[in-house]
């Protein structure tokens, strides 16, 4: 969390912030304001996602023996960080956000995976000031869908040559925006790693059962509460209560009924899980804070006339769908903006 240097950006009305990482991103300004613009509010939100996607749960992305794209040496050092990717998506963190210039207000850059094997990673972000953004190009894209309800689609396969468009319209600094058409429902978009196990197994598993990893990470004796001593039972009940309550709050859903059932049902987990399954059905409510649009910064060094679309090594624009539409395609609007 950093405050913007007012001296550098004082002549601009707005600032675009960009992250090139898949587990470190920005909170959009409206969400930060909704959370009170305080560290306490932001940390509470992040803790909720951590409970929903606990570290050490059985994620497919973290099974290195299945990661055929990695060499044997890379598998030794690859971080087990599926929980960070899923939390990034669930929290609605962004690779690129636009803030109104306010030197007395913080900008929230959240790193979910900054430490690996006792080594702290360096993170890079870019800030570009501007006053106006003019649309120079727009078109409607057709995104082909697989024949299944829950899926993740790499939008790179549907995009035109963005760099060619940047050259055509001579954009020095600007923005690429991708937005789902107004009639598109039960889907959202993000920018993250399009790794096959993460997007084809972990994300799909979560779409089918939003509390899958929360419950799978509970101690084994939760299935047989009669073996649990009194204090341990109370502690477990409290932790499950927190995990489910906060998980659903991240999901933007009412939890009053669930909280009542947790208190009334106590440790009767089979019945409790049935209630959870009914309330948390992904077919009934949008469970993630996924937005309907994403942005990619166009940036150039001062001496270069043309900018380049800023995209990290492992970043891809991704459409995530939890219910298939009647059509075999979804429509998205592509726009190129020039900053002045």
SSE topology:
Layout: E1 2-3, H1 6-9, E2 14-19, E3 24-26, H2 29-34, H3 39-52, H4 72-77, H5 82-91, E4 96-100, E5 106-107, E6 109-111, E7 115-116, E8 119-120, E9 125-130, E10 133-144, E11 151-154, H6 162-168, E12 174-180, E13 187-192, H7 196-208, H8 212-216, H9 230-250, H10 256-265, H11 269-279, E14 293-299, E15 308-309, E16 316-321, E17 329-339
Antiparallel strand pairs: 1-5, 2-4, 2-9, 3-6, 7-8, 10-17, 11-16, 12-14, 12-17, 13-16, 14-15
Helix pairs in contact: 3-5, 3-9, 9-10, 10-11
Report strand %: 25-35%
Please count the helical segments.
11
Order of helices and strands: EHEEHHHHEEEEEEEEHEEHHHHHEEEE
Task: Sketch the major β-sheet.
Answer: 5 strands, antiparallel
Give the total of beta strands: 17
CA distance, first residue to last residue: 27 Å
Mean model confidence by pLDDT: 81
Backbone shape: globular
Low-confidence runs = 251-255, 282-287
Assign a percent range to the helix content: 25-40%
Biggest sheet: strand arrangement = 10-17-12-14-15
Radius of gyration: 21 Å
Structural class: alpha+beta
Q: How would you explain this protein's 3D organization?
A:
With 340 residues, the chain is of the alpha+beta class. The protein contains 11 helices and 17 strands. It has helices at residues 6-9, 29-34, 39-52, 72-77, 82-91, 162-168, 196-208, 212-216, 230-250, 256-265, 269-279; strands at residues 2-3, 14-19, 24-26, 96-100, 106-107, 109-111, 115-116, 119-120, 125-130, 133-144, 151-154, 174-180, 187-192, 293-299, 308-309, 316-321, 329-339. It has a 5-stranded antiparallel beta sheet, with helices on one face. Helix 9 (230-250) packs antiparallel against helix 10 and helix 10 (256-265) packs antiparallel against helix 11 (269-279). Mean pLDDT is 81; it is low at 251-255 and 282-287.
